[in-house]
Amino acid sequence: MRANLHLHSRRSDGTLEPAAVAEAAAAAGLQAAALTDHDTLGGVPEFLNKARELGLAAWPGVEIDVADKETAYRSEILAYFPRGRFERTRELLAGVLERRRERARLWMSRVPRVFCREDLTYEGLLRFKTGVPNGSAREDELSLSKTDLFEYLKSRGVLSPEAEYREFRKAYFDTELLPSGSYRKSDLAGVVRTVLSDGGICVLPHPGHEFGDSLAELTRERKRFRSLLLRMRDLGVRGLEIYHYKNRDSEGINRLAAREARGLGMFLTYGSDCHGPGSVKYTIRDFHGDFPGWPRDGSP
User: Fold this and answer.
1) pTM of the model
2) Would you tell me the crossing angle of helices 188-197 and 87-115 to the nearest 10 degrees?
3) 37, 9 Cβ separation under 8 angstroms
4) Are 271 and 244 within 8 A, CB to CB?
5) The domain 2-89+185-290: what is its CATH number?
6) pLDDT, tens digit, for every residue of 70-108?
């Protein structure tokens, strides 16, 4: 199946509503897709309903922020639920989403002073996030991020429509004009246990990010990469993502990563990390892979 299993919607930091993500996937000629918003499953029902209408194979998914002390891994893990159940994972994510909301409240406590605009409020940020025409998001389903604040400020005329997110982050968060806020990532081992208890499958996303998206660095650090994969496999992570790195090393990184993963008995998924039109990651038409389907027991 022509598959892209790493897509984001407005429930986290994408630009499209979940149903529109399914429409974009079908328009791109995909046969299979998964919505993997950051730390939330809130958009899954809408996405799956539209995917079924379009004849698109689709499964519940989520990308969860995690940390692992043993390997110093601080990034994400992809979780998929081919059996359609994710109750325990959703309960775990409820606490994560509240931490995200607390962080957003902290930002908004400073924003009016920094920009000399008392009309900029946390409630306004939420209205912006949920106020999309035909949107049906609830506050407790939203994964609020710095990009949401950036887009909110642009919508209120505080920032120029041509402003770039990276420059905004450097100017306000890196200088601490706005407080980043402490955000505790979930423990990797605990997340994997929870996903497995729901009958889900865990996949390591974009492994090249750990090595600067550089084939040369990944090759030099191949032993460390293999150790990371061993740790993941031992915890119960069974898949590795072949990813769209958007640079000249992409093919080489994926080839090396696939070889190491298969040598450890891990299967492969394919994803472009698409965040939708208007974002720097509008990649749904640029990448796909031949995905055979989910292994029933989590093994190849």
Assistant:
1) 0.93
2) 130
3) yes
4) yes
5) 3.20.20.140
6) 999 999 999 999 999 999 999 999 999 999 999 999 999
